[in-house]
Amino acid sequence: MTIKSLLALAALAAIAAPAHAQMSGGWQGVGLQAGxxxxxxxxxxxxxxxxGIASRIEYPSLGCTGTLxxxxxxxxxxxxREQITAGPCIDGGRIIARLxxxxxxxxxxxxxxxxxxxxxxxxxxxxxxx
Length: 130
Known about the structure:
By secondary structure, this protein is mainly β. It is 15% helix and 53% strand. It contains 2 helices and 8 strands, in the order ααββββββββ. An 8-stranded antiparallel barrel has the order 1-2-3-4-5-6-7-8.
């Protein structure tokens, strides 16, 4: 098989892989909460998506950690219920993570909230530091 054929097969495998497989691993970024007057707050996010067991979330700048319980998934999206296990963050929020172009679009909703997105972020794959 040629290198070109191998690259084409790898690309097809990535396209065909389910969202959880493509999203598995570490992601990080900066969350943003904005209102009518502009940015209200920002904070750091570190999320680890794991297959078969509960995923993890951390907000290092807020001093919070938690567990993510998967509620549903489609080909390019996973919905989680967030359970804060340490720190002063709001417990029970809903997170929707959408994979697009190698990035996660991350949306957080208040528990029971139906008024729209309450916070958002773009998360990037964690890279190993050598």
